[in-house]
Amino acid sequence: MKAIVCEKYGSPDVLELREVAKPTPKDDEVLVKIHAVSINDWDWGLLQGSTLVDRLLFGFFRPRHAILGSDIAGRIEAVGKNVTQFRTGDDVFGDLSGRWGGFAEYVCAPHTALALKPPSMTFPEAASIPQAAMLAIQGLRDIGGIEQGDKVLINGAGGGVGTFAIQIAKLYGAEVTGVDSSAKLDFMRSLGFDKVIDYTQQDFTRSGTCYDLILDVKTNRSLLDYARALSPAGRYVTVGGSMARLLQILLIGPLIAMTSKKTMRLVVLKPNKDLAYVNELFEAGKVKPVLDKFHALSEVPEAMRYFGTANHKGKLVITLE
Ligand SMILES: NC(=O)c1ccc[n+]([C@@H]2O[C@H](COP(=O)([O-])OP(=O)(O)OC[C@H]3O[C@@H](n4cnc5c(N)ncnc54)[C@H](OP(=O)(O)O)[C@@H]3O)[C@@H](O)[C@H]2O)c1
Questions:
Q1: What are the residues whose beta carbons fall under 8 Å from the beta carbon of 87, sequence distance 6 or more?
Q2: How far apart (Å, rounded) are the C-alpha atoms in residues 14 and 5?
Q3: CATH number of the structural domain spanning residue 54
């Protein structure tokens, strides 16, 4: 089969399209013919070996997993002997982070990492969902405790997590402000953001407006800045961003909670936990993935380069059909 192979850390130039052995499923795995795969920030970080944590976990000098790509959608072609809930021919999707292998024609996946794809959902739509929608739902609902009518701000609103988060927040009747670069503001208005802020022109933490809930995809400001932008019992939830800032939230955030009613917390992704819930929302017409550029498998390096510019709107998905 064909796959995009990454044998050393670096820029997208190190990625190569190669012929590799087609995998065989173990007893509790299925073999999926991949129809679409999306790019996540984690793929981008792993390509470069940019964090010490990733290098310790996934290969210090070179990537232990030569094929990146975690969020896949495709059709089951073979089933391991212990798998009972899926059959050959089922259309599935899920997040394979930790083992990756999605930038390829086929991948073996544990049955626990997959959900059935609704027939009305396209493969690219399905591939866009796993990490971004889980982070949006778990961030707003489980960690952020979003309530009806909350005043919500999403920082880094025009990318994968933000474009799911606006739709989830609207289900709660929230008034939602989105922060991103000027090129994405019209796009964000079209998704239903009530207010948009260009972060190159305005610092939302210094505008005097306070929010009941902030969902942050970038975490590039100080903890005190975020605390200032929260209403008296406001909740700040970070999904990811600068490691130093994240440590600040983890270590000093609890002090803010002890001295006020404000909370500052980090989302630890529970992969695939809410796929069935997203299926329900999708089928009810309440959530619609927002997709950017489609490419062939051979175009993964170009797609990764594009992801690195952060000019994508919504989720960047590669189709293999
Ligand atoms: N917590 C966990 O367990 C976990 C697991 C997996 C991933 N993650 C995290 O999830 C996040 C993925 O988010 P995503 O898929 O939405 O990323 P994304 O698609 O790259 O979107 C990020 C958006 O932020 C914008 N942005 C850049 N700089 C900004 C700034 N200073 N202020 C406001 N917006 C800014 C970007 O656009 P412009 O550059 O054009 O402004 C882009 O639209 C990452 O932080 C990743 O580390 C967390």
A1: 76, 79
A2: 8
A3: 3.90.180.10
Q: What is the reported pTM?
A: 0.96
Q: Quick check: 82 and 106 in contact, CB under 8 A?
A: no
Distance CA 140, CA 252 (A): 21
- Look at residue 294 and tell me whether its pLDDT is greater than 80: no
Instruction: Mark whether 92 and 170 lie in a shared domain.
Output: no
Within-domain flag for 73: yes
- Which residue range(s) make up the domain with 250? 132-266
Ligand 1: residues whose CB is within 6 Å?
41-42, 131-132, 135, 155-156, 158-162, 179-181, 184, 199, 217-218, 220, 239-241, 267-269, 310
- pLDDT tens digits, 139-179: 999 999 999 999 999 999 999 999 999 999 999 999 999 99
The rounded Å distance from CA 28 to ligand 1 centre is 34
Pocket test for ligand 1, best of 161, 226, 266 (most atoms within 8 A of CB): 161
232 lies in the same domain as 301: no
In a domain, 16, yes or no: yes
* pLDDT tens digits, one per residue of 88-120: 999 999 999 999 999 999 999 999 999 999 999
Domain count for the chain, please give it: 2
Closest CA to 171 of 114, 133, 225, 218: 133
**265-275: pLDDT as tens digits:** 999 999 999 99
Same domain, 143 and 80: no
DSSP H helical ranges for the chain: 41-48, 52-58, 123-128, 130-137, 160-171, 185-191, 223-228, 243-259, 275-283, 300-309
pLDDT bin (cut points 50, 70, 90) of residue 50 is confident
Domain co-membership, 163 together with 98: no
Could you tell me the two tokens for 320?
A: 């293999």
Give me the amino acid identity at 296: A
Residue 243 lies in a domain: yes
Q: Which of 151, 132, 65 is nearest to 100 (CA)?
A: 65
Q: Same domain, yes or no, for 86 and 97? A: yes
